[in-house]
Amino acid sequence: MRRWNVLFGIFLLVLLILLGLFFIYFPFQTAGVFGEPDASLSLNQSSRLAVVLFFQHRKLTTPMLEGVEESQEFQVLAGDTASQVSTKLAQAGLISNEQVFLNYLIYKGYDRILQSGTYFFSPAQSPLELAAAMIDPTPEDVRFVILPGLRLEEIARLIPTSGLNFSSNDLLSLSESKTGLVLPEIFKDAPNLEGLILAGEYTIMRDTSPLNFLQYLIDQSVAQFTPEVINAFSQQGLTPYQAITLASIVEREAVQSDEKTTIASVFLNRLLVNMLLQSDPTVQYALGWDEQTQTWWKTPLTGADLEVDFPYNTYRFNGLPPTPICSVGIDSLIAVAFPEQTNYYYFRSACDGSGTHVFAEDYEEHQSNACQ
Q: Tens of pLDDT along 324-356?
C-alpha cells in the first residue's frame, strides 16, 4: 500500500510539473519572445500555441536568406484567410513553415486583421517582420483616383489626403519644371503637364517620389495613344497634343457622356472653318482661382470675363488654347478621335435642367434655342 502511495505521489508531482510547464513556463517564455497572446483565446488555446511556438521559434525569427536585398511583389487579396496567406508565403519562398506561421498569426490574433494590399517582401525578412507588415493598416500602396475635368491644381489638392509621402507643392513644382521627367515624342513640346495625366484610378506605392509618381501616371496615359488612335486624330487634322487639348474642352463642356461625340463635332467643325471656339471652360481656366466662389471654375461668367486678354480665352483668340485645360477621360479622347459627323456649329444647355444640350447648324437656329 505504501508503494502505491509513493507511486501516486510521484504521478501527481509529474502531473503538476507538466501542468506547470504547459500553463506557466512555456507561456511565460513564449510571451517573452513574441509578446502576450490574443485576449480572445482560451487558456487552453493560448497555452497549446505557446508550447508549439516555444519549440519552433527559430522558424519565425530567422529569415529564409540572409543578405538578400531584392524584393518580390506579394499580394494579399480581399477575403484571403490567414491560412491562404501562409500557404502563399511558403510557396513564394518567403517562409519555411506555413503551419508555424499560421500558429503565430492565431496566437497574436493577427489572423483576423491581415490587411489586403500589395507588399514587397524579401527572403531576408523574418516571418515576424512579414506578419508585422501585413497588419499595418497603412499598406505599402495607395489608391489614387483622378476624376475627369480636374486641372493640375485640383489634382495636387488630393495629395495631402492620399497617403503619399510628398506635398502638393512638390507635385506642382515638378509639373512646371518637368525636371527629370521623360516625355514621349508626341508630347515633347508640352510647356507643362496639364492634361497629360488621364483621369482614372491608379495604384501607387506609398513611398514613391514626386518624380516617379508623375512619370508613372504619364506613362500610363501615353499607353492609351496607340497607333490606331493617333491615326484617328490625324484624320481629324489633329496632333496627339492638339487632340488631348480639344478633349479637355469636351470634358468640361459635356455633362452627359453620350453627347461628347456631338460636342466634339461642333468644335472640329469650327476649327475647320477658322471659327472661334467660344468655350466657357477655356475662359474659366484663364481666370483661374475665383475667391468669391472658392473654385477654379467660376460660374456664371460675366461679359467682362469673356473679354479677358489671355491666350486661353477662346472668345478672343482663335484656334485651340496653348495647353489642355484639365484631365480627360478615355471617352473624351475617343469622342475626338471618332466624332459624330454633323453640320452643327453651335450648342447651348437645354432649358429643362437635364444637363443635356441642344445643337444648331446656324446662329439663327442657335438663338431660337435660347430659354424664354
A: 999 999 999 999 999 999 999 999 989 887 889
* Per-residue model confidence (pLDDT) at position 27: 67
Q: Which positions ≥6 away from 365 have C-beta within 8 Å?
A: 346
What's the angle, vertex CA 126, arms to CA 122 and CA 128, rounded to 5? 125
CA distances from 159 to 145, 285, 346 (A): 11, 21, 38
Residue 171: closest CA among 151, 152, 199: 152
* Architecture per CATH, 60-134: 2-Layer Sandwich (3.30)
Rg (CA), the chain: 32
What does the domain layout of the chain look like in residue ranges?
60-134, 141-222, 227-368
pTM of the complete model: 0.69
Q: Helix %, strand %, coil % for the chain, to 5? A: 50, 10, 45
pLDDT digits (tens, 9 = 90+) for 53-82: 888 878 888 888 876 667 888 888 888 999
